[in-house]
Design brief:
This protein is 50% helix and 17% strand. The protein has 350 residues and is α/β, with parallel strands linked by helices. A hairpin with a 2-residue loop joins strand 7 and strand 8 (162-163). Adenosine-5'-diphosphate binds at residues 33, 35-41, 67, 252-253, 325, 327-328, 332, 340.
Length: 350
């Protein structure tokens, strides 16, 4: 943390032990996870959390679902970057802005042609001829490199000597496809020996395989998503030797335990008779039936908590930082997103 002298603005002291957050140098946050675990939601919350101190953040989605527009309650995003929210304020942090972009591979391809060959018109002719369809359906590798390419471009873009975006958050493909998705630039540069495609792929790689990028995993504490996370981390470990940085594990939709450790331990072995007596003493009619239901619920809760504990231990073995995100009980809305952003910031994920 750098402290500035309030009058002169000069650096008063630098505290090297206190980091502002765990991913200080990261400019591209790639968010993956099993579908349905909250990938889009957590990516959006992370963007809100990163948009502080006047920093601008770009939140991008690459799967054409318009999930971000829905989340921020705006009409479907056109192909263009648009401000969707103000970042999380709080403490001394002044909010920055969050922009969103739904990347469309065809548009990205036309942009790419325009950039490298000055071929905007040719590109439009190609669309008419269906060549773009060819590119996006028959060559999924090329499609992926255009999508990661767009992220790399947003990270590198500068205006007036300063980066346009301080951070880019990508709502990325799910765990099963993330390794290939991120490695595709390597494959493409292996295929093309020279020329602009090779140059483009090399640039994309130099961003993705650098300390500027981190790949985060979103999961919930259930067996399948946890297994996918562990498999995904293991797969990316192989790419990590090539410079790819594995990020944090965001444990989403966590339910707080309703009972203390001791009570939880006892919950499985409750005597229904004792419970009924207790309820009766508390003045509750029909205490027998209620006691039976209550004992069943308590047992269920205790088992669920035990399962969560096991899954949490399995995640710990992956050796990556973990962050806990609460279940928002009444469904996700903007207020819920800011709550998740706050939780991420408190735990120094952003
Ligand atoms: N922490 C949370 N609390 C409550 N609901 C959540 C939470 N995170 C995600 N959700 C909900 O779960 C569903 C799936 O989330 P989404 O972000 O679309 O997942 P994914 O992108 O992984 O498919 C959505 O309805 C979303 O509102
Ligand atoms: Mg999604």
């Amino acid at each position: 943390m750098i402290r500035r002298n309030r009058c002169t603005g000069g650096i008063a002291s630098i505290d090297v032990t206190a980091r502002d957050n765990d991913w200080d140098g990261v400019r591209l946050h790639v968010v993956t996870g099993k579908g349905g675990t909250g990938k889009t939601t957590v990516a959006a919350a992370l963007a809100l959390a990163l948009a502080r101190d006047g920093r601008n953040v770009l939140l991008m989605e690459v799967e054409g679902r318009q999930g971000i527009a829905q989340l921020f309650d705006c009409p479907p995003l056109p192909y263009g970057e648009r401000k969707v929210a103000v970042g999380l304020a709080g403490g001394s942090a002044e909010a920055g802005d969050v922009y969103a972009l739904a990347v469309d591979p065809e548009e990205a391809f036309l942009e790419y042609l325009a950039m490298f060959y000055n071929l905007r018109h040719a590109g439009q002719a190609l669309t008419k001829l269906g060549v773009v369809d060819f590119v996006t359906t028959l060559a999924p590798g090329l499609r992926d490199v255009l999508l990661t390419g767009k992220a790399a471009e947003a990270v590198r873009r500068r205006r007036g000597g300063k980066p346009v975006y301080d951070a880019v958050v990508m709502d990325a493909p799910p765990t099963g496809r993330i390794g290939r998705f991120l490695n595709v630039a390597a494959e493409v540069s292996g295929l093309a020996k020279v020329g602009p495609i090779r140059g483009h792929a090399d640039t994309v790689q130099s961003v993705i395989r650098s300390p500027q990028t981190a790949v985060h995993f979103v999961t919930v504490l259930e067996e399948m998503p946890v297994q996918e996370t562990l498999d995904g981390v293991a797969e990316l470990r192989e790419l990590a030797t090539g410079g790819l940085q594995i990020g944090g594990i965001m444990i989403n939709m966590m339910r707080p335990p309703m009972l203390s450790e001791t009570d939880l331990a006892a919950a499985g072995t409750l005597d229904t008779g004792d419970l009924a007596t207790g309820l009766k003493a508390a003045g509750i009619e029909d205490s027998r039936a209620l006691a039976k239901d209550l004992a069943a619920d308590l047992g269920e809760h205790a088992r669920a908590m035990e399962l969560q504990r096991t899954e949490r231990q399995r995640l710990a073995a992956a050796g990556q930082p973990r962050y806990n995100l609460p279940l928002i009980p009444d469904g996700m809305d903007l207020a819920g997103l800011y709550r998740l952003a706050e939780a991420l910031r408190e735990q120094k994920a952003a």
